[in-house]
Amino acid sequence: MLTQGDFINIEKQATALYENLELEIIEEIATRIARVGYANTVVLNDIRIAQEMGALYTDIISLIAKYNNTSYGKVAEIFEQAGAKTLSRDDFIYKEAGLNPVPMKRSRPIMQTMSATIEKTTANLQNLCMTTANIAQEQFYNAINMSYMEVSTGVKSYTQSFIDALRKIGQQGAMIEYPNSGVKRSIEAAVRMNIVTSVNQTCGKLQELRADEVGWDLMELTAHSGARPEHAEWQGKIVSRSGQKGYLSLDDIGYGKATGFKGVNCRHDWYPYYKGSVKTYADEQLKEWEQEKLEYNGKKMSKYDATQEQRKIERVIRADKKELVAQQKLLTSNNKDIDVEQVKQEIRNIKTREKQHRDMLDDFVEQTGLKKDNSRLVI
Q1: What angle do CA 369, 375, 379 make, to 5 degrees?
Q2: pTM confidence score
Q3: Kindly report the CA angle at 177 between 148 and 323, in degrees rounded to 5?
């Protein structure tokens, strides 16, 4: 079984895998935007832009390869630690029931499943990150093209057009694109979601294999306050893997679906349950969590909604940080046509906004009683 503390730790480990990659990519894009502007003033030079786009693609691919080379071992470590911890807790229950589960490393089905999912997750991460190079080229070209249009038509000054272009780059960040859906996410968000979801799903598969080995059917679902409404309906209850009457079925909890138990960003787990024993979570406790309300500036909201609002503020702060990195590249460029004082003022404005957003976050967590997670403010 994985606890909420385990999930938080896995999130931190996942974020650390590619924590500097996004900043390095933003710096690459920003450097080239400033450089093309200097080389061509406001006249677009298609040859020079094509050269910069090609070099940008090559450099980002090299950056990604560097991070990918070190990620496999770390991903494997995250999975192995989570798997061992999960089965250790389950095996304790099985032993209490008089059963004798095979040690994890001696179970061929379990070790094969673990190895296969590590390979699959690592490959997915690497493939997703590779899409970043194409998106970065697109961001670069759009920024240069928009700046040219704005300056040539007199809509904005030369410096302001570049400040605005880099603001957009910073706010967007370095992104990946999911091939099938076309959905784009920041590298940081995509890696965190991919790792946490894959680890939870893998642990679920290991638990099922272990339950099959010892002939166990009933599982108790974990529960926590602030669960998403759809999951609050079944958390803390008993599931029959075989579909026994009187218990929830795997279909009832959406097991195997993206929006269900152990789906995307799910933080629930399960563990063996003795038929007839006292449940870990009393119905009164579950009802209290479901009805829990927090207050912010006089407005009441569910804990789940409050948590989502906290995440929104955290994303704004990270965007401030990324924008600052982009603008600093403009300031340190050798573009003699840039108004340095105007860029310095923009940097001061960003720092002021970041402080305001940090103060907002501090006030929000103080009023609502939610915990502040500084690891979510790191980029």
Answers
A1: 135
A2: 0.87
A3: 50
